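Researcher: We're teaching a course module on how sequence relates to structure. For the next exercise, students receive a sequence and then see the predicted structure as C-alpha cells, so they can try to spot secondary structure elements on their own. Here is the exercise chain.
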Amino acid sequence: MKVASSVRGLAGLLIALALAALTLLAAGAPRAATAPSDTSVSTIAEALRESPVYVDPEASALLSQADANALQKKIESADKPIFVAVLPAGYPTENLFTDLRTATGVTGLYAIRLGDRFDARADPAVLPNAAVRNLVTGVQGETDAGTQLDDFTDRALANMGGSAPAGWGESGGGDGPSTTALITAGAVLVVSGAGAYTLVRRNRRRHTEVQRASLERLRVVVDEDITAFGEELDRLDFHPAEPGADDAMRADYEHALDAYEKAKSSMAAAMRPEDVRAVTEAVEDGRFSLARLAARRAGSPLPERRSPCFFDPRHGPSVADATWTPPGGAPREVPVCAADGTRLAEGRDPVVREVDTDYGRRPYWEAGPAYGPWAGGYFGGGILPGLLVGTLLGSMMATPSYAADYGSGYGDFGGGYEGGDVSGADFDTGSFGDFGGGGGDFGGGGDFGGF
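Model: And here is the predicted structure for the students to work with:
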C-alpha cells in the first residue's frame, strides 16, 4: 500500500511539474494582474502553488496587503497546506472548487472568500468533510474578510494534518527562466526520478516529525493518566493476605497491577500516536478491576462493564448516561460518573478534561486528531464517534479507519496522498461535494458551496 502510494505520488509529481513547465512556456512572462473576468482558475492555481494566499486585483479592498502578508506568514510558519483565495463577488462559481483543486494539483484545504461569501473544501487526508463544515459554520457570521480568514485559519491549523507544499517560498524574482532552460528542466524532470524521490523522502521525513511531535504532546496527557491510576493503587487499602480476602478479590487486584505495568511498558514502547490506544485501554481495564474489587469488599453487586466518564476518564467507570449538549452542537447521551451526573442534573458544568494545544487549554474533543487514539482506547471503536458527533475530534474520527490510524493527515485517506503532496488531478471529487446546508449560505449563482 505504501509502495503504491509512493509510486502514485511520484508519477503525479512528475506530471504536475511537466505541466507547470508547459504552462510557463505558454505564458512566456511572469503572472500579471488582470480583471476578474480574465483571471483564470489556472492563474489562481499558479499563484497558490507559490504562496498560500492569493488576492485578486479586483478584490484587494476585501483584504489589505498587510493582512494578506500576515495570513501568508501564519500559514507558512505552521507548515500546513492551507490555500486561501480572495475573489470579487462576480467571479464565476460553477465548479470553482473542483477546478481550482485540479489546477493546483496539491492535496490540501482550500478556502475562498468570494465577495461577502465564504466557503471551504479539503481532501480527507487533510481534514474530513464534516470538520470542514463545522469550521466554515463557525466563521460564517463574521463580515470582515480579514477577521474571518484569520479565525478560520487559526481553527483549521489546530486540527488539520499534512505539511506545506514544497513550492512555497522557493520562487524567486527576475524575468523568469528562458525557453531553453524550461525545456531542459522539463526533460530532466521527466527522465530522472532523483529529484522526485528526494521530495518523497522529505515528505516522509516531515510525516515522521509530525508524528513524533504529536506523540510527545500526547505523552504528557497519558503520563498524567498513568500517574493518576498508580496513585489509586497506592491509596488502595488492600492486601492479598488480609482477613476476608478471597481468590476473586486477589484476581481483581492482580489484574489491576498487571494493567498498570502494561500501561507503563506500552507507553515506553510507543513510537506513533496510534500506539497510545493500547495504553489507555490498559488503564481503563485496570480501573474496572479496581471497581470490581471495591464492590466485592463492600459486599455490593458487581458493577456492569461501562465506559469511563466521558468528561474525564480519570473519574473512573461511568455509572449512568446523561444528556449533554456541546457548545453549538446537538444533545447526546454520554456516560458520566456520579459527580458529573449530579452536576448536569443541577444545571452545572461537568469537570472536563482539558489538554494543552497551540491555542491554549481546550477540552480534549477540541484539541485535534492526535487525541483520537487516546480517546479510542477509553471508549472503544463503536460508541466514540456517536459521543463526539458535532465536535472537531468527532468529525475527524468519522471514518471507520480512525481506530487504526488516528486521524486526518496521518493515514492513507484520500488515495494515499498526504497534505501537501502533489497529486495532480488524482483526487476524490466526492470529498468536495455539495455543502448540503451544513454551513454557509451559498445558494444559486452556480455551485459554489460544492466542489
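Model: If you want an answer key for the exercise: The longest helix spans residues 194-235. The chain has 13 helices and eight strands.
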